[in-house]
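go over whats below:
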Amino acid sequence: MDMSGGEKILEAHASRIDKLFAKAQASASAFGGISRERFKDALLRSVASRFRDVRPTQQDVAAYLDSLYIEDLALATACREASEPAWEHFISRFRPDLYSAARAICRHDEAAARELADSLYGELFGAGRSGQQGSGERKSLFDYFHGRSKLSTWLRAILSQRHVDAVRASRRMESLDDEQTEHDVPAHGARHPDSSGRTESDPDRARYLSLLQVALTAALAALAPRDRLRLAYYYVQDLTLAQIGRLLGEHEATASRHLERTRRELRKQVDAALRDEKRLSDAQIRLCYEYAMEEWPFDLTRALSERD
């Protein structure tokens, strides 16, 4: 769906957009407000991104608009426009969480964590936006935030991906002469792999966990709001299937079937992302899950509960 098509769709939801804008303005008062034009542009980009390859019904668009994190979208939009009060608000609100997430990703290497978190600010701000550099202006990472997940969840996913990118870049810099083939003799003191192919101390462990976090966070963010809510009820609030059914107006057996379907879809999407996007083998994907079962360094409970 192109932007012009999205604008026509939004015109059919003018009253809903008025309510969303009022909600955005209420939250934006903490950092100076946001213009209706900028807010509508943000909604337009969000709708166009969500329904890129489909023609949605009015009910689809209405449900999608109602599922957005409007307060976070308003803040991201103001930061995207380089609003100084918005940036001050963003930094005071999110800097502690960013440092905490970076420390977890970097396995408590304080220097690496601070470098990882601080490097993200330049990308988010989009240095050069207020002026020209060459023939064009740089983009802010906020261009890619559409309010489909909490801003904190989105930021943690980007941190994880940046860490993975840095690991890959450092490995590309290594000399091929230092790499072992399957026929090489292990170096002195090297640890032998067990039956699963995993070494006693796998240097790829942090990378596999980061890749899994990125893939799973993205898969959760892409869920339909009702499916995500059902997962949150079951895994976060520890409700029974009968209680979930009563809350969602469905039979206990229906709630059970939907949960199982959602779990299968999540596993399928995560596996596909790890295999097709991250280029992991089946054995490496198994290691991702094994390491996650042994040590769960990212808080998906929080990721689910943030939509309640």
Summary: The chain has three domains: 3-80, 84-125+141-169, 202-305. Residues 252-277 form the longest helix (26 residues).
